[in-house]
Amino acid sequence: MAGSYPRPLPRASRTATISAMQSASFTREELLSNHAFARPHEAAGRRLHGGLDAQGRYLPPRTQVREPAVRAWEQRLVERGGELLRADLSLLPAPLFPNFEQQKCLLAHGLGQTLWNTLTITGVIEARGKILAEFPAPEFADVVEDDLSETATGHLRRGLLEAHGFDEGGAPDSDLGAHDAMWFAARDLALGIDSYPMPEIPESIGRPDAGRLCPSLPIGHEMMLSLLANVLLIEIRAEKVFSFVQALLRQHQLFRARTSDLELAHEMIARIRTDEAIHVDYLRLVLSELRTFTFRGLDGSRLPGTAVLDPLWNAVVQWHALENPRLARAQMEPVLRARILTHPEGAAILEEIESLADA
Ligand SMILES: [Fe+2]
Ligand SMILES: [Fe+2]
């Protein structure tokens, strides 16, 4: 069935229930509930999360209520006069390294390890997202004056963080593969199983601790805000990797894999992308809501949410937009050079790679 993978259900039809919602308060069980799948999600020999509807379209896991809930909370935010934070790819203009043409050049010369490592590292980092389900998240009701009962913020500990963690690394009571398994499936389809050794996985890709950014809050709340902001930026950066890898997988001549396997790898990433949309949406919404609340500082003072959130958000954006890409590139360049030079025509390939570099 090469080339005929069904497209995900359009968002509009999945959110038709919003207008019917009277209350924007939900239980943990509701926020973790799945659609009534017509068929399980099985692909590339793996049993995976999510499922297919009667038309064979992919439906993400745990979104039956979670998705319309996010739309309802967004509506509440706007009704209160709040606005959604700008949190999209325009915040992260640095190109990926190696860039698209360089990656094509590497693959054309049979140098697939760099892409292999990218896919493996992405899968392992996705699985680490499971920490969100286990993280001892503090209650924001302890530090803000506002009523959180009909907000995303008020549901973080009541299903939202758990649903996100399970999407990334799998639910504890389930043997269905999550995003790590989906990335590894895409990698193996495109580049072959066990083609290269396991790469070194970076310790962390979040902004390193550089002192307090919200000293007026308890440390646990500041750590939570920092986690939410970092994960949001990592999710946005992932979107760049998704479209990059999908575009590469469309260049069938660069791979030795069968066309049908490349198309399934492409589809696998499309399904991860479909799942990720709600992560970006709810994280952006929580940070946007928090900017509209009034915080109670440790010294009893009242602080507008913008005063608490904006310095932290700006620091995290700065790290992901500038510092992290610079560091990642500096670490990657010598490794890539050494790898290219192991090829019999390494010197010529290196010259070609350098000629394709971004300014
Ligand atoms: Fe993910
Ligand atoms: Fe995600």
Key features?
6% strand, 53% helix, two-stranded antiparallel ribbon, 359 residues, mainly alpha
Blueprint of the fold:
Elements: H1 11-14, H2 28-31, E1 39-43, E2 46-52, E3 58-59, H3 66-79, H4 100-108, H5 113-128, H6 131-134, H7 156-169, H8 179-191, H9 219-249, H10 259-292, E4 294-296, E5 302-304, H11 305-340, H12 346-355
Antiparallel strand pairs: 1-2, 2-3, 4-5
Helix pairs in contact: 3-10, 4-12, 5-8, 8-10, 9-10, 9-11, 10-11
The protein binds fe (ii) ion (2 copies).
One fe (ii) ion is lined by residues 126, 129, 168, 179, 272, 276.
Form type = globular
Work out the strand percent: 5-15%
Record the strand order, biggest sheet: 1-2-3
Question: Mean pLDDT, nearest integer?
Answer: 91
Number of helices: 12
Helix content: 40-55%
Structural class based on helices, strands and sheet pairing = mainly alpha
User: How many structural domains?
Assistant: 1
- Give a list of the ligands: fe (ii) ion
Give the SSE order as H and E letters: HHEEEHHHHHHHHEEHH
Low-pLDDT runs: 1-16
User: Roughly how many Å is the radius of gyration?
Assistant: 22 Å
